[in-house]
Amino acid sequence: MEEARALLAAADRVCVLTGAGVSAESGVPTFRGEDGLWKSYRAEDLATPQAFRRDPRMVWEWYDWRRGKIRGCAPNPGHHALAELALGSRSVRIVTQNVDGLHEAAAREVAGAGDPSPALPLEVHGSIFRVKCTSCTYRIPHRDPVRWESREVLPKCPVCGALLRPDVVWFGESLDPRILSEAFESAREADLCLVAGTSGLVHPAASIPLATLGGGGSLVEINPTHTPLTTMATLSLRGASGELLPRLVKGFD
Ligand code: OAD
User: Which of 79, 80, 125, 142 is catalytic?
Assistant: First the structure.
């Protein structure tokens, strides 16, 4: 922890990459842990464009269930610590694979009446609380429950009438190139990449920390378990991000 604090204190530019583990202590299920979503559900039935074409009703039922679960979750001390870090004097970019909106909620809570924008994350896998049209360019924030009992009641585009879908990246789909290149640029320019709560298995997001290492920066990982990033990390802190991130950022033991 002391060494990690020293690296953070010395870094002018920091890139933070987060995954599902940072929201675990908020009650949001991860994907690959013991209780992970991909242990009970098949990604190919629910999180691919083919699955949506085959059975949009079932896909919406699952996303409506996940959205309901996440609506009941609040940011935890790990999200708040990262928001504080990003709202401080240094140049910090939060990049997240999470679609749950909890970094943004923490940014708004910590900023209070101030400007939350320095702590708003780049959401490389989209947002579960946004929908987009399957046919035209329509896209809009959307938090309310969705009706999915039959195909007829599924949400439709007000512009062209085609089905709306969650604005998240599904398996087999490309990430938004502008968001991705911004994420890689901030990693390349960073003196330190702080990675928390990701299994490091899903690319290209999992390659973002390599850009920091390639540019001569350091990599600090926070995760209760070993990941493919551990072997490359300058330091690995073993434990829960809700506990370790506040200790790292705020300096208490
Ligand atoms: P995973 O579920 O693959 O990994 C979660 C990681 O968090 C694991 O390495 C856990 O050890 C760690 N973890 C669990 N509890 C933690 C805690 N309290 N504090 C810190 N770490 C903890 O989730 P991701 O790596 O985010 O993609 O998965 C990457 C992508 O795969 C997701 O964005 C999603 C999924 O399919 C899309 O939806 C496109």
Answer: 125
Annotation marks residue 79 as catalytic:
no
Closest atom of ligand 1 to CA, residue 199: 9
**Per-residue model confidence as pLDDT tens digits over 200-229:** 999 999 999 999 999 999 999 999 999 999
Give the Å distance between the CA of 42 and the centre of ligand 1: 16
63 lines ligand 1 (CB under 6 A): no
Beta-strand runs (E) in the chain: 13-18, 91-96, 122-123, 126-133, 139-141, 164-168, 192-196, 218-222, 235-237
| pLDDT reported for residue 38 | 87
* CATH 3.30.1600.10 at 34-72+129-168, yes or no: yes
With a cut of 80, say whether residue 253 has pLDDT above it. Answer: no
Instruction: Kindly report whether the global pTM for this prediction surpasses the value 0.85.
Output: yes
**What superfamily would CATH give domain 2-28+75-125+176-249?**
TPP-binding domain (3.40.50.1220)
